[in-house]
Design brief:
Blueprint (H helix, E strand, L loop, with lengths): L3 H22 L3 H8 L2 E2 L6 E2 L2 H11 L15
Antiparallel strand pairs: 1-2
Length: about 80
């Protein structure tokens, strides 16, 4: 076991190493994926990444519901 000054140095070195690992890891995939889901279905509250997917979803899942105004000019 390390004692005294050697233990302190080891702790400092380990803390620095852990900080570098945490800093390099940085990118959170769940947060990025959640940020990409910007369109929300008004009927079932499902989130979609783009208007094309949103329109396809709406036409297949909710054919009897009126089309939302944000999907009026979207090409499929």
């Amino acid at each position: 076991m390390a004692r005294g000054h050697q233990k302190f140095q080891s702790q400092q070195k380990n803390a620095k190493k852990q900080a570098e690992i945490k800093k390099s890891k940085g990118h959170d995939q769940k947060a990025a994926a959640k940020a990409a889901l910007v369109y929300t279905c008004t009927v079932c509250r499902t989130q979609m990444p783009d208007p094309k997917t949103f329109k396809q979803h709406f036409e297949s899942k909710h054919p009897k519901s009126p089309m939302p105004p944000e999907l009026a000019g979207v090409e499929v």
